[in-house]
Amino acid sequence: MALQSFEVNNVKCGGCANTLKKALKEDFGEVEVNLEVMPRVITLDIDDTKIDTLKSKLRTLGYPLVTDELSTFENIQTKAKSFVSYAIGKLDS
After folding, report:
1. What dotted CATH number matches 2-92?
2. pLDDT per position as a tens digit, 41-89
């Protein structure tokens, strides 16, 4: 495993960061979310064989990687999911 960073879309605030940290912890351990840069960056210790799993999980949460090529429908769908994740993250914080 190696410490790697990924640029993520739709992360707006601490609520989004909380959602990401909680949702990814079980599968990937501790996740750092940098809210000081745009696009936002997550950093975690991950094996290259798990990157596709990470991409899938991020899309499910509404926070796809910047490098993901999404259709217009998928883009709208991930933004809607990220809004719900944001609201849940705000309630949990």
Report:
1. 3.30.70.100
2. 999 999 999 999 999 999 999 999 999 887 777 777 777 777 776 676 6
